[in-house]
TrEMBL record:
<dbReference type="InterPro" id="IPR029147">
    <property type="entry name" value="CFAP77"/>
</dbReference>
<dbReference type="Pfam" id="PF14825">
    <property type="entry name" value="CFAP77"/>
</dbReference>
<protein>
    <submittedName>
        <fullName>CFA77 protein</fullName>
    </submittedName>
</protein>
Length: 187
């Protein structure tokens, strides 16, 4: 029987002071020198990539062989396993084909000699002169055409139409509700 006011005693005897509770892990803990001197390196496993089956090609070949029923197609698919072709997607672990470059191509270098002699300014000035000559010739041709033919009455947008033809002014009408129309007034 338990003593009055005291909990019951356990029936188990505890292990000695050398006992470790939990699971003991054997690890090397030599501090910084151990960490720098002995790296735990993991070797990469070769990644085998299985491509999906190419049912379109297998179906086309099955029809060419004379398969007509679903059972014949299933048997053909079982014995002729054709996989989709890799679209050339480079993944980690694959070898890069020779002669391939990634990224945008760099711009060709500007000839420094042309920059020093203001060649680009001269080219721009020549293009501006040619542009003004063409504009002058076009203006002359338009002026001659307008002299030969009178200007046509081209209908503009709604704003120009309303300027030339203003809408009629509405007469002001005093509106009365219908119930007040038949009111008797003594004369």
């Amino acid at each position: 029987q338990p003593e009055l006011g005291k909990p019951t005693r356990t029936c188990y005897s505890l292990p000695g002071p050398d006992f470790t509770y939990g699971m003991y892990l054997h690890k090397r803990d030599g501090g910084v020198a151990e960490a720098i001197g002995h790296w735990d390196s993991v070797k990469a496993k070769p990644h085998v990539r299985i491509l999906p089956r190419d049912f379109v090609t297998m179906g086309r070949m099955a029809v060419g062989e004379g398969c007509t029923t679903a059972r014949e197609f299933a048997l053909y698919y079982k014995f002729k396993d054709i996989r989709c072709k890799d679209e050339g997607i480079l993944r980690y672990g694959y070898k890069i084909p020779p002669g391939i470059t990634f990224g945008r191509p760099s711009r060709p270098s500007t000839p420094f000699f042309d920059v020093m002699q203001h060649r680009y300014k001269e080219l721009w000035m020549e293009s501006q002169r040619a542009r003004t000559v063409v504009q002058h010739v076009v203006k002359k041709k338009v002026g001659k055409i307008q002299q030969c033919f009178p200007p046509l009455d081209v209908r503009g947008n709604r704003t120009t139409f309303l300027r030339t033809h203003p809408p009629p002014v509405k007469e002001e009408s005093f509106w009365h509700p219908q119930r007040f129309e038949k009111v008797w007034t003594p004369h």
